């Protein structure tokens, strides 16, 4: 059984994503946040229903809420869902 998505788990996921997968966060903002002109983005938090991003679009910092297609059960579900979303986003760009 994986851990529930608590504020501490959200912080851990965001830190990992921001440090190691910044390109994925930009793509989440572009594709799922409907901001195709996103230049940079940061994951601020994640909860069972979605993620909160901050994106720089045309020299303006804007908040973006990306909803998931299902409520996340736990941290493992978050991991798989984020991977699935990036795969779909990349294939839609090709």
TrEMBL record:
Q: Which ranges form a coiled coil?
A: none
Signal peptide region:
none
InterPro entries (alphabetical): DUF2470 (IPR019595), Haem_oxidase_HugZ-like_sf (IPR037119)
Where on the tree of life does the source sit, at the highest rank? Bacteria
Extract the Pfam families matched here: DUF2470
Describe the location of the DUF2470 domain by residue ranges: 10-85
Name the chain's protein.
Answer: DUF2470 domain-containing protein
* Organism from which the protein derives: Aphanothece sacrum FPU1
């Amino acid at each position: 059984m994986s851990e529930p998505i608590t504020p501490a788990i959200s912080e851990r996921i965001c830190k990992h994503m921001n440090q190691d997968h910044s390109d994925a966060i930009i793509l989440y903002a572009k594709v799922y946040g409907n901001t195709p002109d996103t230049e940079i983005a940061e994951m601020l938090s994640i909860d069972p229903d979605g993620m909160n991003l901050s994106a720089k679009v045309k020299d303006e910092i804007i908040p973006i809420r990306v909803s998931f297609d299902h409520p996340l059960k736990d941290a493992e579900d978050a991991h798989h869902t984020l991977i699935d979303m990036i795969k779909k986003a990349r294939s839609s760009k090709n």
